[in-house]
Write a structure and sequence with these properties.
The protein has 292 residues and is mainly alpha-helical. The chain contains eight helices and four strands. The chain has a domain of 167 residues. Helix content is 51%, strand content 4%. The strands form two sheets. A two-stranded antiparallel ribbon has the order 1-2. A two-stranded antiparallel ribbon has the order 3-4. A hairpin with a 5-residue loop joins strand 1 and strand 2. The termini are far apart.
C-alpha cells in the first residue's frame, strides 16, 4: 500500500510484510555462476570453451561445493581458498609426502582432505580442478600474453608458482593420465548435477550417510581382524606351552628310566689308582706314562 505525502510521490508503507524471495514450498535455485567466471585471467590461460574441467556437470559440482563449503562465489574468495590449497600442497610436498609409493593422484587427494572442499566435492573432481589450475598457470608462463600478471602475480598465481618450484618435478603426468584412463574423469557422466539447494543438501546428506556406513564397516572389519589376530596369537602361545610340557615330561621319563648308578656321583678312586694321563716313577726313577 502506498500513501501520498505533500510535495512528494508515493511512499512505501514499511509496516506491511515484505514478499518472501523464496515462497514456502518453492525450491531454492543454486547460483547460476560459471566456474570459469570465478577465476581471474591475468597470469592464467584457461582451456578454450565455457568450462574449466572436462564437462559442464563437473564445473557445476565445483561451484556447488564452494556454496556448501561457505566460500563466496566471487573471485577474491575463490582464489584465496584455492591459493590456500596450493600452499598446503607445497608444505606437504616439502615434508616428502610426494614420494613413492605415493602417486600424484593420491598426493592431491591428501591435499584435498585438508581443504574446505573436503566432504563437499568428490575426490576425482578435486584432483581435476587442482590439475586444471596448475596447467592454466604453466601454459601462460610458457607463453605470456595479455592479460599480464603485473605489477605482481595474484595470490593464487604466486601460490601455484611456489608449489611448482617445490614439487613440480615430482608431479607425474603419466600417473594423472592413467588416472584419467581408469575412468576417474568420467565417473559421473550419467549423473546430472543438482539444480537446487535442497537437492544439493539431500545429495550431500546421502553421501555423508554412505561415508559413515563405509567407516562403520571398516571399523567392524578392523575389530574382527584384531579378534582373529588375538585368537591366533593365543592359539600359538598355547601350542608352544603344550610342546614345552611334552618336552619336560619326556625328559622326566628318561631320567626315571636311568639306573641309580648312572644318576649317583662318581665313586672315589681307589688308593693307588692312576688317572688317565697321570705319570708315575719306577724304582729306578724313570718316569713312565700309565697306559690308557
Amino acid at each position: 500500500m502506498a500513501s501520498n505525502q505533500p510535495g512528494g510521490g508515493p511512499t512505501r508503507n514499511f509496516n506491511l510484510p515484505l514478499r518472501p524471495s523464496n515462497p514456502a514450498g518453492q525450491p531454492s535455485q543454486l547460483p547460476r555462476r560459471k566456474l570459469v567466471d570465478l577465476f581471474g585471467r591475468a597470469g592464467f590461460r584457461w582451456a578454450q570453451g565455457p568450462n574449466i574441467l572436462c564437462r559442464d556437470e563437473r564445473d557445476k559440482r565445483v561451484v556447488q561445493a564452494f556454496v556448501a563449503a561457505g566460500i563466496a562465489l566471487a573471485k577474491p574468495a575463490v582464489e584465496t581458498a584455492m591459493a590456500d590449497m596450493f600452499r598446503a600442497a607445497r608444505q606437504m610436498a616439502e615434508q616428502c609426502d610426494l614420494q613413492p609409493p605415493t602417486t600424484t593422484p593420491q598426493f592431491i587427494g591428501h591435499v584435498l582432505a585438508t581443504s574446505p572442499l573436503v566432504g563437499h566435492l568428490r575426490e576425482s573432481i578435486g584432483i581435476e580442478l587442482f590439475c586444471a589450475i596448475r596447467e592454466a598457470r604453466l601454459d601462460w608462463k610458457a607463453n605470456p600474453t595479455y592479460p599480464f600478471d603485473r605489477p605482481a602475480p595474484s595470490p593464487l598465481a604466486q601460490a601455484v608458482d611456489e608449489f611448482d618450484a617445490a614439487a613440480g618435478s615430482r608431479i607425474s603426468a603419466l600417473e594423472l593420465e592413467l588416472f584419467g584412463w581408469a575412468g576417474a574423469w568420467a565417473e559421473e557422466e550419467d549423473e546430472a548435477a543438482p539444480e537446487t539447494v535442497e537437492e544439493l543438501q539431500r545429495q550431500h546428506k546421502q553421501e555423508l550417510q554412505q561415508q559413515q556406513q563405509q567407516e562403520e564397516q571398516e571399523r567392524e572389519q578392523e575389530q574382527q581382524q584384531q579378534q582373529q589376530d588375538g585368537e591366533a596369537f593365543r592359539a600359538t602361545v598355547e601350542e608352544q606351552q603344550r610342546r614345552e610340557r611334552i618336552l619336560l615330561q619326556l625328559i622326566q621319563n628318561y631320567r626315571d628310566q636311568l639306573p641309580e648308578e648312572a644318576m649317583a656321583p662318581d665313586a672315589e678312586m681307589e688308593e693307588g689308582e692312576v688317572e688317565e694321563g697321570e705319570v708315575e716313577e719306577d724304582e729306578d726313577g724313570d718316569i713312565e706314562m700309565e697306559d690308557v
